[in-house]
Write a structure and sequence with these properties.
Elements lengths: L1 H26 L7 H8 L1 H23 L5 H30 L2 H23 L1
Helix pairs in contact: 1-2, 1-3, 3-4, 4-5
Length: about 130
């Protein structure tokens, strides 16, 4: 029973790591001489889609594996956490889909606002 909770926690932290890798492009505005940072900046969109994929697995594990095994008191707390996670996942989905559907000029204006909202949701989900 402990293994599924470890996988659940691992996928959550891995998704957060992907989101943090996406933020490297925001903080690094100048040209980079470092190959590793250049790779991260060049694959900014792929890290976002990777975060969406990993966090989809995280949500599936939380909803289908962890929730049925919980006791009554902890189950209520987990349900609240799942609802905040679903909202966070939906905002991340909007960010990823809008990067495909809208032009860069239109998307760039609302991108930062969505990411601030996503950051607040991630913070409340982790707490």
């Amino acid at each position: 029973m402990g293994n599924k909770f470890e996988v659940l926690e691992l996928t959550g932290w891995l998704g957060l790591a992907f989101i943090i890798l996406c933020l490297v492009r925001f903080f690094q505005r100048k040209k980079v001489g470092n190959d590793f940072l250049s790779f991260i900046i060049a694959n900014h969109r792929m890290f976002g889609w990777g975060a969406l994929l990993v966090l989809s697995v995280h949500g599936f594990l939380a909803y289908n594996l962890a929730l049925p095994t919980m006791g009554r008191g902890f189950k209520h707390h987990l349900l609240n956490t799942i609802y905040s996670g679903q909202l966070t996942w939906a905002v991340l989905l909007v960010v990823c889909m809008s990067s495909i559907l809208f032009s860069r000029r239109i998307f760039k204006n609302s991108h930062l606002l969505l990411l601030v909202f996503l950051g607040v949701l991630v913070f409340t989900h982790i707490l």
